[in-house]
Amino acid sequence: MKKLLICTGGGDCPGLNAVIRGIFKSAKKTKEWEIYGSIEAFNGVMAEPTQIIKLTKSKVGGIHVKGGTILKTTNKGNPLQFPVQDENGNIVFEDRTDSLAKKIKSLGFDAVINIGGDGSQKISKALFDLGVPIIGVPKTIDNDLSATDTTFGFQTAVQIATDSFDKLVTTAESHHRVMIMEVMGRDAGWIALHTAIAGGAEVCLIPEIPYDIEKVKEKIDSRYEKGRGFVNIVIAEGAKAKNGQVFGTEREMVSEHLRLGGVAFQLSAELKAAGCKPEIRETVLGHIQRGGTPVGYDRVLATMFGVKAFELVRDGKFGQMVSFKNNDYCSVSLEEAVKDYNVVDKEGFLVQGAKAMGMSFGD
Ligand code: F6P
């Protein structure tokens, strides 16, 4: 029997379990593979003793409807920049990819499938360059990977945000209020843009289009001129004012990212300072968008990503990342996979179409 190792890395995302099940079921059908999972991304491989579990039918059965990942995950175990304490107690970063690659080989794995976003696929590439037979599966609710048209988890996040938006509309209307709803989206405003179009927001603020607070206020005022209006705004966590800064709360020592969240309150304060009269309320959706059951679309995408990933393993086509392009399940090289981000094009049809519907982006 050959040995296949699965890892889930980075932030969790609805659909991860469906990928694991897709790999497991299609691999088991060949009767040639044993499937293992590393706990908390590659941390399970690096740990002494290792934390690797053998996947069985009973562990994997029915998990495609379950959110999260049965293998657990972390965004703190990047082997390219592994945090360790030096003798003075300071955190320093070490490149541990070489020892990780050696450990994977010494454990006798014939193939690895790494499910994760941009950061995880950079790790896949580094391991592949060191001779590890590895395949990547793209994962991000932000939908910010350019090598695939879409990623599982994104539609689920948009649906959760749209359902929440719809609830905020009825209360905004009843109280003649301005409602600000903050959604995830660090560098890319896809969740915000899709939710704003699906819900019919008056204002949508995204990282790709820095906003002018006066323009946002103008849009709000125009909705109140004709009587007692109401306004619903969607803002991505990474949105910022022109000449402004991204609103973050803290920078963790073990991660290169500033923790975002709370820009809805910042926008509210800016609007009040600009003289906005109506009452304003803020809602930060946060991790609700990443939890729970994946919608049908994401289950299909995730399951097929799993099947495709195993197909690449079976055919020995390593160094590739599974992708969904032009309605087709295909693959791209890991090099291609980590080259560019997929951000919203402000001249693109989605933004222009939303503008044609009267939506303001504050520009
Ligand atoms: O990258 C996905 C994402 O959901 C971002 O939109 C968000 O900023 C980040 O992860 C949150 O990460 P954490 O779960 O570590 O707070």
Structure description:
Its cofactor is Mg(2+). Homodimer or homotetramer. It is found in: Cytoplasm. By secondary structure, this protein is an alpha/beta fold. The protein contains twelve helices and 15 strands. The chain has helices at 16-29, 43-46, 57-60, 97-106, 118-129, 154-175, 190-199, 213-225, 263-273, 296-314, 334-337, 349-356, and strands spanning 2-8, 33-38, 52-54, 82-85, 91-94, 111-116, 134-138, 178-183, 203-205, 231-236, 248-251, 258-260, 280-284, 320-325, 328-333. β14 (320-325) and β15 form a beta hairpin. α6 crosses α7. The model has no long low-confidence stretch (mean pLDDT 95). Bound molecules: 6-O-phosphono-beta-D-fructofuranose.
How far apart the termini lie comes to 59 Å
Total count of strands: 15
Could you tell me the radius of gyration in angstroms? 22 Å
Pattern of helices and strands: EHEHEHEEHEHEHEHEHEEEHEHEEHH
Largest sheet: 7 strands, mixed
Domain Phosphofructokinase: 4-313
Protein name: ATP-dependent 6-phosphofructokinase
Subunit structure: Homodimer or homotetramer.
Binding site for ATP: 11, 76-77, 117-120
